[in-house]
Amino acid sequence: MTLLVISPDYASHLLPLATLATSWRDAGERVVVATGPATAAIVESFGYERIDLRLGRGSNPGTIKPEDQPPGEDDALRGFFDATRLGMIETLEFQARARLTDLMWQPVETARAVLAVIEAVRPTAIIVDHLAFSARLAMVAGRIAHVDVVLGHPSALPSLDEVYGFPPAWPAAFTPSAGELAELRALCDEVSANFTAEWNGALSVLAPELPASPSAFEEHGDLVLYNYPGELSPAERPLPPHVFLGSAVREEPADDEVAAWIGASGEPFVYVSFGSFLSVRGDVLGRVADALRERGLRAAIATGSSSPDVLGAVPGDWLVRGFLPQVTLLRSASAAVTHAGNNSVTEALTFGVPLVALPFSTDQFAGAAALEQNGYGVALAPNTATVAELAGALDRVLGMPRDALNALSRSLRYAPGASRAREAVTSWSIDSGLDAASR
């Protein structure tokens, strides 16, 4: 069997997809990853074959910086970072306006490149990142059966009256006005209409005999895998044929310094990371550090693209590096502070770690709201949360009842996402009688 994984050239997207593919690799089957050059080292670290496929202008090997992006993408990234400093509505509006032009990069050419990769690899099964729109367009045009992996909050694939880019839920700390929400919704509706027109325009070139899509954001693969715990998804929300994977927790290479730091003390510690994008918000990292110092807590902090200087005076029992092995630290952490990115949320829940969530953008608001509603964390607005409020949130999560968290952790660890993925894809292939050569 040959599994083809199609991913944008972003570490935060490739890592969970590559982790899901380990169940095929460990069964002795061939795994080929089609992605760009920035993440080639990640593909190699998993022991997979790589075939070059460019799905967009930008890339991110682990920490993204504007100066590393091609012209145009660099300014867009700076604009996004600036918007996060203004607030939630401003950030979501900036992202929505950017989507008017950047969701499908050279869709016809890219789709043809995807079809050429599939022809060259001749896979038995294909799993593709849901946000790799041009790749999914190619498979619709080519009538190629495939499995669609939603790596973020499930609302990335809209349902009911949802629209892409408009959070279906907000944490209690966020209180946008009715007028702001109406304007954001109208903008997201405009983006959805424009994107559908762009999708259909490309589809008419690639496969003019096929009908147009009524709503391109609602298009999905033959089977949808949600990299998210089903326990956090509302039962009444209708979904396409799907499986909840829970989480895609990756194996990390041994890190002697980190292992020694964890073992040096039995005191609880807090892990802090804002991921590959939002680590640029050193001002918020600095306030989190102040709150940790105020409470006298031991901490492991990944500063990412921010200078360690933003943290102020670093206590001797803290571990501070640009990059830290997140999974390794979450296995032992007592709490975590996060931007509420899906990888961070699902990995923390796998180990029963409660979260202080500071969402900045996209589906982070819905993810933080789910944590809050289910009693797995506390959400604050990152731009306005004071040191005292952050310290209070740390107190609350460290004192949270752990029964529900521990039960969820046992469920996620008992059936890891990689094994759920392979079982789901294998069962789907058998039940449907489909393979990667036909829809």
UniProtKB/TrEMBL annotation:
Residues spanning the membrane = none
The record's section on Gene3D superfamilies has: Glycogen Phosphorylase B
Does the keyword Glycosyltransferase belong to this entry? yes
Q: Which UniProt keywords apply?
A: Glycosyltransferase, Transferase
Q: What is its EC number?
A: 2.4.1.276
PANTHER family per the UniProt record, alphabetical? STEROL 3-BETA-GLUCOSYLTRANSFERASE, STEROL 3-BETA-GLUCOSYLTRANSFERASE UGT80A2
- Identify its protein family: Belongs to the UDP-glycosyltransferase family.
Q: What is this protein called?
A: Zeaxanthin glucosyltransferase
